[in-house]
Design a protein that fits this description.
heterodimer, A: Rossmann fold, five-stranded parallel β-sheet, B: Chemotaxis protein chec, 6 strands
């Protein structure tokens, strides 16, 4: 698994971005880009060309589902969201999400899913 | 928005269980739902229910994207400080003043707990309800909203469905009240 990959973390919660960064850093990843809303996410995606996007659904300005519709088929997107309804989860997969983690999550679950996605 | 009584109660029971599990996972401690109920009540009654407790409190709300309701998380400031320490996996007593990232942690707690409840409503009542971004408001602002609505008086048609769950992190005696309310007038006032 390539741990030099650049990971874009899109979540309006600064706390959640920190939690995810800490988990990823603990697993050996070191290249992170962060954003707090969907519009910023799209801009950072274009500018930074990450290899993996961790995407929240509920975000201001442009929500995660709209972001996913735009980039879901171009990059690996792992959705990490508090939204747990089956219909929403299915919709993200239709738009290209390679995985879905419902918050709150175990740290191990995040690493396992990322390992699966990047393998 | 109308529900059958049995549907509401099942949703409340399922929701409280999901919320307690989620809170336990977040805090790393055992959590019990000490109160779990759902009522269809006059708006005035529901507003009195959500009035912040005396003393300093922390209030987070998120609006339902369809605009017919809102979710509220209310806890004392002291309990919020303990919760922040638990969320950050640091010794209780570390946080003395809420910084921006601590407020972010509390808002995210509402996000996660409310969405757990929404998942239960979806499974019990086959409803797809989406919450918006959480925001923090002052207890004074919430109290103003409540007082304004109470002063204006509620018509007989002003009914609210209110889900109430009181969660306790047993080891630390942290208490948090989670409300899901369905009523359009409350949402309009919070937006002003």
């Amino acid at each position: 698994m390539d741990k030099n990959i650049k990971i874009l973390i899109a979540d309006d919660s600064a706390f959640m971005r920190k939690v995810l960064k800490d988990i990823l850093a603990g697993a050996g990843f070191s290249k992170f880009v962060e954003c707090g809303d969907g519009k910023e996410c799209l801009a950072k995606y274009e500018a930074e060309k990450p290899g993996l996007v961790l995407l929240d659904i509920i975000m201001p300005v442009v929500d995660g589902m709209e972001v996913l519709k735009k980039i879901g088929t171009a990059v690996k997107v792992l959705v990490i969201s508090a939204v747990g309804q089956d219909k929403i989860i299915e919709e993200t997969k239709q738009h290209g999400a390679v995985g879905y983690i419902v918050k709150p999550f175990d740290r191990k679950k995040v690493i396992d899913e990322i390992t699966k996605v990047l393998s | 928005m109308e529900f059958k009584k049995e549907t509401l109660q099942k949703a409340a029971d399922d929701g409280s269980q999901k919320v307690a599990e989620a809170f336990s996972k977040l805090s790393g401690s055992e959590v019990q739902a000490s109160v779990s109920k759902v009522e269809t009540v006059p708006l005035q009654v529901s507003l009195i229910r959500i009035k912040p407790p005396g003393g300093r409190a922390v209030v987070v709300y998120a609006q339902l994207l369809s605009g017919v309701g809102a979710s509220l998380l209310i806890m004392s400031r002291e309990d919020a400080l303990v919760l922040v320490d638990l969320l950050n996996q640091q010794p209780v007593g570390t946080t003395g003043i809420l910084k921006d990232i601590d407020r972010s942690a509390i808002k995210e707690t509402l996000n996660i707990l409310s969405n757990s409840y929404m998942t239960a409503l979806s499974e019990s009542a086959n409803l797809e309800l989406r919450l918006g971004v959480p925001n923090m408001i002052t207890p004074a602002r919430l109290e103003d909203i409540v007082e304004t609505l109470l002063e204006k008086g509620a018509s007989e048609d002003d009914i609210a469905v209110i889900f109430e769950t009181i969660l306790v992190i047993t080891q630390h005696k942290v208490k948090a009240s989670l409300y899901l309310m369905f009523n359009e007038r409350l949402v309009e006032l919070i937006k002003e």
